[in-house]
Amino acid sequence: MRALLQRVSFAKVVSEGELLGEIGPGLLVLLGITHEDTATDIDWLVKKITQMRIFQDEAGKMNLSVSDVQGEILVVSQFTLFADTQKGNRPSFIRSAPPPVSVPLYEQFVEHLRKAFPHKVTTGRFGADMKVSLLNDGPVSIWIDSKQPTY
Description:
Layout: E1 2-15, E2 18-23, E3 26-32, H1 39-51, E4 55-56, E5 62-64, E6 72-77, H2 99-116, E7 121-123, E8 131-145
């Protein structure tokens, strides 16, 4: 499971003219799911996202989590996070899980996030053509992969 976290001043997602989700200061989470992902990946990633200290404290250091600052979270599914660009110029998405696998995992991820995070969590629409608008704060963008080994 992969997530691209973006610390934002605001973010929103729209599909076919319909506003699906909108947040103020907090995190935009672009979420990619692969075939090997399980509930263990969900639990690890939810904990990592809610505890990642990427918000500034009173001294201006990145020392606070989205929970600490009572921020909001917008989750948008993005299968392209598993793009394979090794060969040629057209990315392959073979590592991205198909909807029968990824939809239940995405829904479980959102459910677990809402249970673990007491503030606003909103989402896009899985599989929809979406337009995401955001104001990246910093800019701060953090890549997290649940399968990446820690050193």
